[in-house]
Design brief:
Strand content: 15-25%
GO molecular function: DNA binding; DNA-directed RNA polymerase activity; zinc ion binding
Structural class: alpha+beta
Organism: Candidatus Uhrbacteria bacterium RIFCSPLOWO2_02_FULL_49_11
Bound molecules: zinc ion
Keywords: DNA replication, DNA-binding, DNA-directed RNA polymerase, Magnesium, Metal-binding, Nucleotidyltransferase, Primosome, Transcription, Transferase, Zinc, Zinc-finger
CATH class of the largest domain: Alpha Beta
CATH architecture of the largest domain: Alpha-Beta Complex
Domain Zinc finger CHC2-type: 31-85
Cofactor: Zn(2+)
Order of helices and strands: HHEEEEEHHHHHEHHEEEEEHH
Radius of gyration: 22 Å
Length: 273
């Protein structure tokens, strides 16, 4: 069965949608115009009719017709879905999961990712990471479980493939900070060959990850890679372990702040909470 998103995309042309806001001119196989998202005098805003995508080479924004409507109308995905469904004459069922707020979808995506990383840690690909955590870091299974530590495998599309099978769109993975948009062939995993620490807000909901390199590899970014700023993850607002510590902090009136995630977890395991 067609999802409403596919249904809408098959009935509408991105060129018509964008032309309601931005005058476009033919430029080879594509169309171009002045970018509505940054000031410019020469057009660097491109629309690809064949791929039904847009991209601005000036401000580097881009996406499909849904992301365009979200940006230009300053609305979230569920509202953009309603706007375009109306244009396309597609009826949306109220209980459609795509209508749930973008935040809720992102929370579920991150939670599913964390569970999947934890499963990988216990699997064949995670053997070395698990050995590191148990032997070098002396963490016990209860601790791994409590903090939901995981492992992101080496491949380029491991998590991406899993999330796609769960019904998430590539754009949602990018928005959640779990995937990066490649130039040539779609999206790929942001975290590869890393031990994964879920980051939680003070309610305990997963809002992002820190990934620690298992093998030093300069080409693969730094030793630690964090989720970028997203709808849910704001670096300044997240203090690792606060969701677990806040009651004790309130009760005892003191808080111990240490440098790394591993320090927090080791202290927690040692009974310092
Ligand atoms: Zn632009």
């Amino acid at each position: 069965m067609f999802s409403p998103v596919d249904d809408i995309k098959s009935r509408l042309d991105i060129v018509d949608i964008i032309q309601e806001y931005v005058p476009l001119k033919m430029a080879g196989a594509n169309l171009k115009g002045l970018c509505p998202f940054h000031r410019e005098k020469t057009p660097s805003f491109m629309v690809h009719r064949g791929r039904q995508m847009w991209h601005c080479f000036g401000c580097n924004l881009g996406g499909d017709m849904f992301t365009f409507i979200q940006k230009i109308e300053n609305i979230e995905f569920p509202e953009a879905l309603e706007v375009l469904a109306k244009k396309a004459n597609v009826e949306l069922k109220r209980e459609d999961p795509q209508l749930r707020s973008e935040r809720q979808r992102m929370r579920e995506l991150l939670s599913a990712s964390a569970q999947w990383f934890a499963v990988q840690l216990q699997g064949a690909q995670g053997a070395e990471a698990l050995r590191y955590l148990k032997e070098t870091r002396v963490l016990i299974p209860d601790t791994l479980e409590e903090w939901l530590l995981g492992y992101a495998p080496k491949g380029w599309e491991e998590l991406t493939r899993f999330l796609r099978a769960k019904g998430y769109r590539d754009q949602e993975m990018v928005n959640a900070g779990m995937a990066l948009a490649g130039r040539a062939r779609g999206v790929y995993d942001r975290f590869r060959d890393r031990i994964m620490f879920p980051l939680r807000d003070h309610h305990g909901a997963i809002v992002g990850f820190t990934g620690r390199q298992l093998h030093e590899n300069k080409e693969e970014g730094g030793k630690y890679v964090n989720t970028p700023e997203t709808l849910l993850y704001h670096k300044r607002a997240v203090l690792f372990g606060l969701d677990k510590a806040k009651q004790d902090i309130r009760a005892q009136g003191i808080a111990l702040v240490v440098e790394g995630q591993m320090d927090v977890i080791s202290l927690w395991q040692a009974g310092i909470r």
